[in-house]
Amino acid sequence: MAWARFGKKKDMPGGLWIKCESCGAMLFRKEFEQRHRVCGTCGYHFTLPARERIALTVDPGSFEERWTNLVAQDLLGFNDRVPYGEKLVATRAKTGEADAMVTGKALVKGVPCALGVMNFQFLGGSMGMVVGEKIALLCEFAVEQKLPVVLFACSGGARMHEGAVSLMQMAKTCGALQRCNAAGIPTISVMTHPTTGGVTASFASVCDLLIAEPGALIGFAGPRVIATTIKKELPKGFQRSEFLLEKGQIDRIVPRSQLRDELGRLLAYATGRDPVAVFKAQPVAVEAEAVVAAAVVPPADEAKAKKKTKAKK
Predict the structure, then answer these.
(1) Is the CA virtual torsion 10, 12, 13, 18 positive or negative?
(2) Which tens digits make up the pLDDT trace of 187-201?
(3) Which residues pair with 111 in a beta bridge?
(4) pLDDT, tens digit, for every residue of 113-122?
(5) Domain map (residue ranges) of the chain
(6) CATH of range 47-312; options 3.90.226.10, 3.40.190.10, 3.30.450.40, 3.40.50.2000
(7) What DSSP string runs through 130-189?
């Protein structure tokens, strides 16, 4: 019997279970993915890859990605055991993304918007020259097209490999959002776990409406650094979204499962549409794997190129 059990255990494929980072519960991976990476025991919201975030937020097939040709440069010749240039090449190959921000135009419950989503899988979602440029271009596009802006933040902060260049993106993104404000373009920031450093200190905190997912770590310096510096015990839940809501730092907390509906309603109010009709729009499919491919269409430039090629044939 012992050998039989041993054989079954050996034949069992790996990766079927995942341990919750918050409560330690063992989660069946398939159910975990179906719940959009939310723990079924304690409700902890895990970090969500950018493409899955887009797929769960926008209407299927509506996302038109833009500015895919932008790539970071190693201006400083930065070397931290591995040269920054080599690290960029390896991370692009691993993630399939050009950088830590995916931008474009999309529909959320039928309402068009300019969308930017940070990807934590790309060097911790750090903000460098490409992230700042994409947000600036997205805001310019939103002003031209008169579209509301939705930005999802998920980042460890500024990208140290780019030095002062990365820090200047804080001013650049804030200036871009100010131009949206001057043009009467509504902006919404969605802060997810984690949102820290220069991202919190710039575009993530200066939009018209600030939303956060439950339990998200939001702050500039980390709680351990603060506690060590001031040599005091921090309040319970310090820098978590619930604590910030209580202090008036954010406007509301929305669970991941309700976020698309809530964004649709807020965008409807912002654009003068009927929020009741928008809220009743058909929800997106449940399984993330099924909607990732359906929600993402080729970038606008690539789509035009394909049409021209077919026409020549």
Answers:
(1) negative
(2) 999 999 999 999 999
(3) 108
(4) 999 999 999 9
(5) 1-44, 47-312
(6) 3.90.226.10
(7) HHHHHHHHHHHHHHHHT--EEEEEEESSB-GGGTHHHHHHHHHHHHHHHHHHHTT--EEE
